TrEMBL record:
It comes from the Bacteria. Pathway: Amino-acid biosynthesis; L-valine biosynthesis; L-valine from pyruvate: step 4/4; Amino-acid biosynthesis; L-leucine biosynthesis; L-leucine from 3-methyl-2-oxobutanoate: step 4/4; Amino-acid biosynthesis; L-isoleucine biosynthesis; L-isoleucine from 2-oxobutanoate: step 4/4. SUPFAM superfamilies: D-aminoacid aminotransferase-like PLP-dependent enzymes (SSF56752). It comes from Halobacillus mangrovi. Its EC number is 2.6.1.42. This is Branched-chain-amino-acid aminotransferase. Keywords: Amino-acid biosynthesis, Aminotransferase, Branched-chain amino acid biosynthesis, Pyridoxal phosphate, Transferase.
Amino acid sequence: MNKSLTFIENNHKKEKPKTKEIPFGRTFTDHMFLMDYEEGKGWHEPRIAPYEPLTLDPAAMIFHYGQTVFEGLKAYRTDDDRILLFRPEKNFERLNQSSDRLSIPPIDEDEVMGYLKELLKVEKDWVPSFEGTSLYIRPFIIATEPNLAVSPSKRYTFMIILSPVGPYFSGGIHPVTINVEEKFTRAVKGGTGMAKTAGNYSSGYQAQAKASQTGNNDVLWLDGIEKRYIEEVGSMNIFFKIDGEVVTPALSGSILRGITRTSILEVLNEWDIPVTERRITIEEVYQAYEDGKLEEAFGTGTAAVISPVGTFNWNGKQIVINNHDIGPLSQKLYDTITGIQRGRKEDTYNWTVEV
Ligand SMILES: *Cc1c(COP(=O)(O)O)cnc(C)c1O
């Protein structure tokens, strides 16, 4: 499996979090995984090394033209102390899809899965055991060739860093308030919306800031052309339950193909709950609300799994769903998926992978 993975041990181990109050994305483990790419040589020198700053040439292409992709998944500690990943092969498959869009050479998905497992074995004590916590896994690739030419880099570094994270919801699930963005666009068909790549996120900060200044937690993006068709939330896909039927926007090329989204579609099918992937406008959602048919709305993603939407703000009109409480379907989906992820519910889908 391995192209002789080397291991350089970190002799200055850090202190691990002692409570479940771990802020997202600011604590990193003792080691990271790295592997380099060079044209003609391919991916080489896989290694687990101490977590430390990188040295890069100021002309490294990542800094100038944003040639980079990333992934996000979690490792969960079960009550009987096993470590589980949730559909991790889907993350490496999607990483390669993102890379393809950004003209980055593909990685060998099986080989990299092996390296991730090795890294997690080294860092297993960093997977926290407090209720609701997990170890966030961030694989990413950056273009490292020093060259200001506007063309794909001939060199890359692939890395995996690990970060213990606290529960997304502390003290019960809180439905969120969402602003429907009318001016800015996240992505258009033919653009990079389906790729997990840096520019898609920094270009959303202005809309995010505007939303939070007006008391919203997040942004709902509409299509870039007609500003009618619903796409997704900041880093979540979106679902609506209207008159007994679940609807989520069809993947149009500008929407990120969420692994949580795919899993929820599979669970709903298994439960024989009608679910469709289709185009849906914001007017339709507001009309369903007026007609008393908008039963639930929720975002889906690795971070929260299910994040119920309590309020939408659009075009000066506010709608409150389900009295700003979590709906029964959202709760059942949340319990099912998190139960499987944490090894508390039987994994009839074969989704979890033990490290
Ligand atoms: C990562 C991400 C999602 C959710 O994907 P999951 O695989 O479910 O975590 C949705 N939208 C965007 C823009 C994302 O970056």
